[in-house]
């Protein structure tokens, strides 16, 4: 597990977050703080609201009630333009990679850059930024390939490169190892660890994969019944006698 | 029955709302010119073969089927004007629109629905792009512009097919045929036909985009939305055509 110096500057603050879909009350008073440079895994059963949580953070889903601050700004109160500005600093790795099928790998990576010209500072050309991002995930040779020509693991890597290209301050990972075999999953976990070190971004990693959580995070939060049930580091939770925690950690 | 009626009104309301959003957003930046050009190329260029061959066959069939009746009355010299008016006023726009409803409308809805299922639309939004502007406005505008172009092309090819039959069966030269066609055609035939083609294009694309954007139930929903888009937009083509004929009658006294 990574031991990174903790700087207690909160980049995400969530207080009493509520979100329902009809009668399905997904989040019921969720509280959470993510500090700068910190990597936190959120574990929970399927349908427990993990993905909903990070989609609320990025503003893809509107919250019903509560406080949700990202980089010091209250997300529910932001107008579309202000939300877009925040999104420059928050990367999102989707569960299914979400690469644009009609675009090549290069065009996929250029897409966010074209939207945010102001991030193209320092005279670095777009091509160079694309190459750097692809190099950091070890897939420079795929530049001209289409997403359909990539394997599942390669798609995840390219999606990670696309997430990194704007050099975000926070990265939200939605099941980064989901749908991958254990070996590729472990490779992706180490890669996440490596890029988190390289880009110094804070991260929330939504996962079922304990190996991924162990490799990539400083802290683990268990989401149960819409609330943060318990949190701690991997070893603490692994030794916990709590039955809910044991459900996740039992070998 | 009541449930179906309710669904019909909800869908109609939502498509109207979707169309209003289009007009609200189309005029304001950012403008996605590159994507608009790409979509115009895809929608126009990739439909040329299908629309062209259908138009050619349409012209041949219409002439072959009508010829014996006109010959019986000794009125075969009316063939070019009759076929010309039928194709330009009605058959060309409606058949081209129906082909595009099948090809373009279903393509758009399936593409957007699969983008939604695979979270590509969310990814676009997260990267600071307005997916409505990038995906909907470009496709609707491109189809609205390209459909009249395809209709004009289909009309010409269709008349070419008809002229070929007249040349083979009646020894009418191409020049004589087209002279007769253009003698009888006037702006009252052409303008309403072009104007209604814009509406057909808009209706096909807005329905395709709406169905794609609101698709649910995963990959199963992709096929279903494509199918629904074709059914709704084909129906809309006939309704719009009916309205267009009524309105044209007022202005041009058909």
| Helical content band of chain B | over 70%
Query: How many beta-strand segments of chain B?
Result: 0
Structural class of chain B: mainly alpha
Query: What's the tally of helices of chain A?
Result: 9
The helix content of chain A, as a percent range, equals 25-40%
What is the string of helix and strand elements of chain A?
EEEHEEHEHHHEHEHEEHH
Biggest β-sheet strands, sense, barrel of chain B: none
Strand and helix map with partners:
The complex is a heterodimer of chains A (251) and B (254).
Chain A: E1 10-21, E2 24-35, E3 39-44, H1 50-57, E4 65-70, E5 73-74, H2 80-87, E6 90-93, H3 105-115, H4 126-136, H5 152-164, E7 170-174, H6 182-199, E8 202-206, H7 210-216, E9 219-224, E10 227-232, H8 234-238, H9 243-249
Parallel strand pairs in A: 3-8, 3-9, 6-7, 7-8
Antiparallel strand pairs in A: 1-2, 1-4, 4-5, 9-10
Chain B: H1 2-26, H2 33-45, H3 48-72, H4 79-117, H5 120-126, H6 131-170, H7 174-184, H8 187-213, H9 218-252
Helix pairs in contact in B: 2-6, 3-4, 3-6, 4-6, 4-7, 4-8, 4-9, 6-8, 8-9
In a few lines, what is going on in this structure?
The complex is a heterodimer of chains A (251) and B (254). Chain A is α/β, with parallel strands linked by helices and 251 residues long.
